[in-house]
Amino acid sequence: MDVFPNCKRREIMSRVKNRNTLPEVLVRSLLHRLGYRFRLHDRRLPGTPDIVLPRHRVAIFVNGCFWHGHDCPRGKLPATNTQFWAKKISTNTERDSASYDALLKTGWSPLVVWACQTTSIAKLTGLGHRLSQEITALSAAPPPPRRPAPGP
Length: 152
Prior knowledge:
Blueprint: H1 6-14, H2 22-33, E1 39-40, E2 51-53, E3 58-63, H3 82-105, E4 109-114, H4 121-140
Parallel strand pairs: 3-4
Antiparallel strand pairs: 1-2, 2-3
């Protein structure tokens, strides 16, 4: 049972940021320092990735550990209202998987960065190396076959 009425809960939840969060800004800064240029929140792509590298056809999602069910201490379910949160997070992870699959089918490569990977300089340094390697590897892969344009 929620301690707030629905209208108050809606107001509280509407204030939870879903764009330009600190982890997202840190990852963007890191990518920019590594020389990557990108677009933000491209709604034309499935799942509206946080960071899009069109040249490399890579879509990066910077996921909050709690909201997207990461298996780290930050992703732990609360002790109260567990059933609600388990269902909520399960729905989020299912939506994430569907978005990743849709991106793959359209020739894009999804990468996931977890918020807990951005909590220290050492972790960010390691993340920078990992992202650079993954983006390079994905860019080296042959592009998917293009469908011919419909003709008369």
